[in-house]
């Protein structure tokens, strides 16, 4: 009587599959580098568990019985799945597949993550990559909670730097953008005094780019502009700038993306007399949470990208060489 639960092994399934292909036990055994007696014993054990013959022994070769044909259909599915498991495990170990979630503040999201992810996708097209562009505080919260593999962010006082593996990247240059037809667009140099009276769009108070901009006004004895719209959305900012004479401080990477081909979105960078920079950001991952092979591969690609001149994949060539 057949067992209600069969204890079949992969080698047994492969033997049945090879017998169906070659129609001869000897050839099936050779295909699996087995002796014919060993193959015969293995077939007998499978048929014992099934409780019925799987093949008819005919002069022209071995033909599957009705039960054997059903067994073969199932066996082939199992063998394909086992091969898929082996492939998936190999790809995961090699960093060719899997899922990774990363985050960045705006500048490095444009300058580093775009090219690094494109490179990884060339080598690992099945990789599932999620990208969040957020302020540093939210990035660090998600990183601490294990919701993110690594981030390009600034370390804030309320977070313990000992929790992170830290690779210094660089500071961010801030550019002031406006629509190409802005009244100040053709000026050779624009002073902060001239800029103070215009409408502005800035990120929320406390955001590094906003604070760097307001600090520049304070450094020359000027109060902050009175007409400021708060918005963290770069998309909304772009839409508003396109229809007004407002000005927005953004990372230089975003500014270059907007004004140069192939985007060429009808904006300009105002030639500000005061250089604006934001403090250094870092490549961060949690000390207590080892990275998966894919996450490690992407992180290493970001680090390699940071040591090359920035060649943005949409055509920008920024003359900044990073050490």
Keyphrases for this structure?
about 325 residues; alpha/beta; Arc Repressor Mutant, subunit A; D-Maltodextrin-Binding Protein, domain 2; 3 domains; 5-stranded mixed beta sheet; 4-stranded antiparallel beta sheet; 11 helices; 13 strands; elongated
Strand order of the largest sheet: 4-3-5-13-6
When the domains are counted, the total is 3
Low-confidence stretches: 309-323
Kindly name the structural category: alpha/beta
Helix content: 40-55%
Which percent range describes the beta-strand content? 15-25%
Structural commentary:
It comes from Paracoccus alcaliphilus. By secondary structure, the chain is of the alpha/beta class. The chain has 3 domains: 10-92, Winged helix-like DNA-binding domain superfamily/Winged helix DNA-binding domain (Arc Repressor Mutant, subunit A), CATH 1.10.10; 99-170 and 280-306, 3-Layer(aba) Sandwich (D-Maltodextrin-Binding Protein, domain 2), CATH 3.40.190; 172-278, 3-Layer(aba) Sandwich (D-Maltodextrin-Binding Protein, domain 2). 43% of the residues lie in helices and 18% in strands. The chain contains 11 helices and 13 strands. The strands form 4 sheets. A 5-stranded mixed sheet has the order 4-3-5-13-6, with helices on both faces. Strands 7, 10, 11 and 12 form a 4-stranded antiparallel sheet that branches. Strand 1 (55-58) and strand 2 form a beta hairpin. The relative contact order is 0.14.
Sum this structure up briefly:
It comes from Paracoccus alcaliphilus. With 323 residues, the chain is α/β, with parallel strands linked by helices. The chain contains eleven helices and 13 strands.
């Amino acid at each position: 009587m057949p067992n209600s639960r069969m204890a079949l092994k992969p080698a047994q399934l492969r033997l049945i599959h090879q017998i169906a292909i070659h129609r001869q036990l000897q050839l099936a055994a050779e295909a699996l580098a087995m002796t014919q007696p060993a193959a015969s014993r293995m077939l007998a054990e499978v048929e014992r568990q099934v409780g019925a013959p799987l093949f008819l022994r005919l002069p022209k070769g071995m033909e599957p019985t009705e039960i054997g044909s059903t067994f073969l259909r199932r066996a082939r599915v199992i063998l394909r799945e086992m091969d898929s498991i082996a492939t998936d495990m190999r790809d995961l170990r090699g960093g060719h597949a899997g899922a990774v979630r990363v985050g960045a503040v705006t500048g490095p999201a444009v300058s580093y993550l775009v090219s690094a992810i494109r490179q990884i996708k060339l080598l690992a097209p099945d990789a599932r990559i999620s990208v969040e562009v957020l302020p540093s505080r939210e990035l660090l919260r998600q990183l601490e909670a294990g919701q993110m593999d690594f981030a390009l962010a600034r370390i804030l006082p309320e977070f313990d730097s000992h929790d992170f593996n830290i690779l210094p990247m660089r500071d961010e240059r801030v550019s002031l953008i406006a629509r190409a037809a802005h009244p100040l667009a053709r000026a050779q140099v624009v002073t902060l005094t001239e800029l103070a009276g215009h409408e502005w769009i800035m990120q929320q108070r406390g955001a590094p780019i906003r604070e760097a901009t307001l600090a520049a006004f304070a450094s020359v004895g000027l109060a902050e502009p009175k007409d400021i719209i708060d918005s963290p959305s770069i998309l909304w900012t772009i839409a508003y700038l396109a229809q007004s004479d407002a000005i927005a401080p953004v990372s230089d990477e975003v500014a270059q993306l907007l004004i140069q081909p192939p985007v060429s979105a009808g904006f300009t960078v105002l030639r500000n007399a005061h250089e604006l920079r934001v403090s250094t950001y870092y490549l961060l991952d949690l000390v207590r949470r080892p990275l998966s092979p894919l996450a490690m591969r992407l992180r290493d690609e970001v680090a390699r990208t940071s040591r090359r001149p920035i060649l943005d994949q949409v055509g920008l060539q920024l003359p900044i060489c990073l050490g």
